[in-house]
Amino acid sequence: MVQSRPREQWLTPERRIKAMHPTSVQGVEDMISLGDLHEAGILRNLLIRYNENLIYTYTGSILVAVNPYQILPIYTVDQIKLYRGKKIGELPPHIFAIGDSCYNNMRRFKQNQCIVISGESGAGKTESTKLILQYLAAISGKHSWIEQQILEANPILEAFGNAKTIRNDNSSRFGKYIDIHFTKEGVIEGACIEQYLLEKSRIVSQGADERNYHVFYCMLAGMTREERQKLELTDASQYKYLTGGGSITCEGRDDAREFADIRSAMKVLMFSDSEVWEILKILAAILHMGNVKFKGKVIDNLDASEIPDTTFLVRVARFLGVDVRAVKEAFTTRTIFAQGETVVSHLSHSQATDVRDAFVKGIYGRLFIWIVRKVNAAIFKPKATHRTSIGVLDIFGFENFKTNSFEQFCINYANENLQQFFVQHIFKLEQEEYNSENINWQHIEFVDNQDTLDLIAIKQLNIMALIDEESKFPKDTLDLIAIKQLNIMALIDEESKFPKGTDQTMLQKLHKQQSHHKQYLKPKSDLNASFGINHFAGVVFYDTRGFLEKNRDTFSADLLQLIHNTSNKFLQHLFVEDIGMGSETRKRAPTLSAQFKKSLDMLMKTLLSCQPFFIRCIKPNEFKKPMLFDRELCCRQLRYSGMMETIRIRRAGYPIRHTFREFVERYRFLINGCPPAHKVDCHAATSKICHQVLGRADYQMGHTKVFLKDAHDLFLEQERDRVLTKKITILQRCVRGWYYRRRFQKMKESAVIIQKYYRGHAQQRRYQHMRVGYMRLQALIRSRVVSHRFKHLRGHIVSLQARCRGYLVRRDFQHKLWAVTKIQAQVRGLVARRQYRKLKMRVEAARLKEEEERTLRQQMDKRKAREIAEMKYNERMKEMERVEELRAVEDREMMDRKRALVREAERQRDEPVDDSKLVEQMFDFLPDSASEAQVPPSAFKDLPEAGQGMVSGDDIISGIPRPAGDQDEDLTEYKFQKYAATYFQGNVNHQYSRKQLKQPLLQLQTQGDQLAAMALWVTILRFMGDMAEPKYHVMDRDNTSVMSKVSATLGRNFIKSKEFQEAQMMGMDPVMYMSQKNRSIRHKLVSLTLKRKHKLGDDVRRKLQEDEYTAESYSSWLDSRPTSNLEKLHFIIGHGILRAELRPTSNLEKLHFIIGHGILRAELRDEVYCQICKQLSNNPSKSSHARGWILLSLCVGCFAPSEDFVKYLLSFIREGPPGYAPYCEERLKRTFANGTRNQPPSWLELQWLLGYCEERLKRTFANGTRNQPPSWLELQATKSKKPLMLPITFMDGNTKTLYADSATTARELCNQLSDKIGLRDQFGFSLYIALFDKIGLRDQFGFSLYIALFDKVSSLGSGGDHVMDAISQCEQYAKEQGAQERNAPWRLFFRKEIFAPWHDPTEDPVATNLIYQQVVRGVKFGEYRCDKDDDLAMIAAQQYYIEF
């Protein structure tokens, strides 16, 4: 069995299926004529027509419209003219046909008409209503102003009452009945609009992927800038009420253009400019009210709330014309009147939010009612003469969700009434057709839903009387009274009017009173707070939580008092009915259900007085896509719309109907001798066929049709199939015989041809096989000849190799023998010389003995002299032996100590170490408090120290030069992802990774740079916390700064060496070229690296120069042994430090290691930036992400990337966090302009680091690359997030503080100081900084920057050198001396460096005063000396005169 879907299903022979009726094969325009009149038949018919873009289908006078979700060309002016004056059925189904029939019936019978349009949300009800109104306006004959007003009312109602939902982008969230009034001539003269049950809860909350009402988004998108400024509005994403569903846009809608249409429609409908502005103020106040936030607190052990930020509250009060304090009290407190007393209670956080939301819903609901009344005032004309009308009802369809509340209860109640009205109308049509055909129909029955209506809303007891009666009884008898029979809606109203009524008590009463009703369903569990009703479309369970609150629709007395006191007359007008009521009247005000029931009763009364037409809108799918038909969804909608009830009514009678001509044409084969329909009397032939085939069955003959039951139709179809099958079998037998005979002749002829071609093909294949065999034989013979020649030649080569190797081995042996002999000769010579020295000393002692003996003989006898000389000789020999023994003992003790140290180091190396105690946090080395007071140099002891006291605003100089450049340069094409895909090696992508790299990201020229890149990657991972530090052992502390070791180890001029340049010119790989040069470059690199401090043995040097040893050591360095950043640098890059420093490293040392490479090696800068950017791309760790951006901000302030990568880096920074992007760009441009620094950032420099990263990038561009990595001072500023300030001391005792950054140069500070103090004659003035050793920097125009630490002073000059480089060097030098970086006691001074002979003291008094103060202090502290005492006395007198 092949289904209509593209699939097959196999059935067993025992199963019998009914053959598809011919009318269901191609589809019909009127489903009344369907033979298969059931759900599947109707659904298939709709599917066939929908696939052909035929969206309209009749079911009698009922029009079924399937939403196409696309624009079809069927609503043109030509279509309007085509359907005008035509009856239903004359032309294909169309909504214009319904409108035309309705219009013509109104004019012909002078009776009011109505068109009921129903369906689910998204089925097309609103669009169908528009088309009906447009058609009626077009055919009314006179295009008047009132017609235009009626059409323009729709955009306004849609804006305030429609919203985007998950089912429909323009869903109507209210029901409306538009009554169009016509004159006797059929001309439109007016209209009236009634609205039902606006969804006010959408104002304060929306479902996922839904929006609030259209008017809010249109207003924000379409207002002018001045209007938004007056209302203090921004874009829609800033308001809580507009972002609750997570969607602020709607595909296919232009909010700005629609706002212009709304304003135009308001002008057409006589809205004044002041009224429009008041509406906008109300809407703006609602948006601001949604942003008012409450904070919970406790007052007197009770939950209360407050509004911490009153910004939005002030705006709400201003737009509503009320006092801010009154609004705040109304939102956070509640006033209760009890027994003549007033009690004020505080509201909790949730209660305050509910009060605010209720206020908003009340304002918007009354504003919508006012807008509908305003529209009616414009389009409604009082009835002067007789007139007729056409009503168009656009109302919500039946709803059954997972959670159904009070709104669904009212909506389904309305649909029950409409279904009752629909069923009565359909049954009436059936009766009319049976009467016209003279068919007996008295026995037809149909399902009536009157029981469900009685259960919901038919009153059986007056509610007010019940309330009066219950008030007379005590509380414990209320349960007895509740037994009286009340319908569901009456029970809800009753419970809503009780002060202590709750949803739970209401549900209990419902279960008690209605549980016996057959249409009422009680949940199995008492914990389930819901009840069920068996509706015509199925069972629906309603959740009673919130029923009473929604039904009461109350408005707080505090809020009403607030509106009563407002100065906004428009707002008071919206609440004029509520304000006019007294408190008691307000309590007796009708509930929402009562109001809705009253409006619905009036609507049903209006519909019953009209001739109805029905349009059932069907939504084909939930995805709002064209040409997609969901059968289950459509079938459910057909049930909800009542179409299945139409089927039931028709099936209760005679659902199968054929005209006599159709019946004869189809079933004439069942009897013998019946000619075709055009040759016979069809009525007689039909009667004959039915009599012979059906016999006395229950069928009836009408005037033009035969009426059959389903069983009759099935029997006739089966008989027709049987007869046709028998006759067709005979025909098939003859045709098949002729077919197979002809087929055999063709097969025989084909077989002969195939045999001929196959035999030729077999011979060709045999030849090809033989040819391949001969070719293989030839190849085998040739291979044997070549193999024989190869073996012969190989024998000669092996013999030659043997002789050569023997020669080389003998030569090597001779060389080694010579070397051993040489070493032995040297060693033997050394031993001999040592023995010689000992013998010489003994000979010298013997000589001294003889001389002493000769001398003593002159003084005494010969024997006495010999004894004394012998005694001295023995003493001298003993002393020599003692000294020799002491020296041997000392040597043994020294060796023992060295062995003990080695054993201790090995023991500590093998001990387990706790990782958590050794891994430092990012800024653990920075203190929380200010650094210790700095000690000034002795030459400036009388000056105030930097950092002491409070710095006034006048002493702080701000104005870091910002580099000029194109701020709006488009960098959208320069994506880091694109750069990575183009330049990265291997399969490495641009995203975050915690794995070690197998090779550098970029192509590097030298092996040293490649190894450095690998070490940098590991160091960056450990700095960002993406790789844990391995275990390590602590040894003696090394005070040498990382930058000093980097500079000594890195070999920064290697790329500029002669050998490297030669390799590049020859077009060779530098690494290969170096290996071919007998490793001469490696020898030079080793000697360059080790020439300062490190002394290695020849054996260690030799191993270092071997590639295998270097690679193996590098692998073990990174994988198995914990190292500091400095050790990684020495071992990998310099190839010169083999002694690993087993000690922990701080984050400062890691920064120096990373940035030191970027400063000293321009070839590694892009590699460093690419590694950092890769780790910042899609980094899931917040800590790692923050560390990475801080590292990037430090790098852009110290060195700039290459021209090829700079735009990609700028684009990456601009897309980064807003706290870093702008300043980073400026720092980079400043670094480009001022050049690379020589020192890392200082401690103070990092005070200003957490600015904007994009500005830092621009500064790096402007000032060029630095020469030193960041200092401890910069990291301190990064942690504290304070601006970077440098105190400068003058010789007159004053101190000025300047803002600076990593790219600040001496020239910029000198210029800022000169401008601040009004120094015109700048020549010769300089800045000094204190440090241990002199720093030689450039000087420009005699104005320099000096630094002094302890008693040594050095000039920084006033050129383009970076100030922070000098401070970084001070910190590094302090570390080398055993102190901490933060304790480096540097100070900056502004003083005269060059004294020009042409200086005129009268031209610049400021310069003269500074020079004078410098000279006086210099003389006082011994910096300057006077040769004459008179000059010294004169200076002292002048100083005394000036000061006293």
TrEMBL record:
Its main location: cytoplasm. Residues 992-1250 form the MyTH4 domain. InterPro entries: Band_41_domain (IPR019749), FERM/acyl-CoA-bd_prot_sf (IPR014352), FERM_2 (IPR035963), FERM_central (IPR019748), FERM_domain (IPR000299), IQ_motif_EF-hand-BS (IPR000048), Kinesin_motor_dom_sf (IPR036961), Myosin_head_motor_dom-like (IPR001609). GO terms for cellular component: cell periphery; cytoplasm; myosin complex. Residues 26-721 form the Myosin motor domain. Residues 1284-1444 form the FERM domain. Residues 600-622 are annotated as: Actin-binding. It holds the Pfam family RA_2. This is Myosin VIIa. The keyword ATP-binding applies. The keyword Transport does not apply. It comes from the Eukaryota. Keywords: Actin-binding, ATP-binding, Cytoplasm, Motor protein, Myosin, Nucleotide-binding, Repeat. GO terms for biological process: animal organ morphogenesis; system development; tissue development. GO terms for molecular function: actin binding; ATP binding; cytoskeletal motor activity. Transmembrane segments: none annotated. It is found in: Cytoplasm.
